Amino acid sequence: MSSQCRQNYHAESEAAVNAQINAELTASYVYQAMGAHFARDDVALPGHAAFFRKNCEEEREHAQKLIDFQLKRGGRVSLTSIVAPVEQTWTSATTAMEAALKLERDVNEKLLKLHAIADSHKDAQMTDFIEGTYLQEQVDSIKQLGDYCTQLRLCGEGLGVYMFDCNTLGGGSA
Q1: d(Cα 161, Cα 88) in Å, to the nearest integer?
Q2: Is this prediction's pTM over 0.85?
Q3: 159 CB-side CA count, 13 A
Q4: Most buried among 10, 71, 115, 135, by the most CB within 10 A?
């Protein structure tokens, strides 16, 4: 049975939204692994663990918004397998933050492609949804992660990372 509310919603857009749902859930899974890594007793950076857990939740929320959008437009949600993160441990807080920055840039690139697909089908509502819900937040997140990468490189390993964890990410009192 086809949807009664489907209007000006191209099959290519529907497929791309499903792919973006998977990308958001995959990002959530990576952030979950990062949060678990930094919560380990031999890493013990609670600010990093909380930061990555928060990002995990945000990515799941992004996926849910896309699911709701898909259903509102008369599309069908098609969930696919989420691949386990390639990395599940990181050699330093800096390498983890750099991986998070790359992840956000990759998700942003996929959102831009999704926007282009919507635009190519003259789907103003979908382009507006992507712009209003995701793009500014992605740019802000990329900037924040870039700043954190720089700050972590500047403070060095050891005590510097601990101070960053406490003072910037709220991991405790120094």
Answers
A1: 19
A2: yes
A3: 1
A4: 115
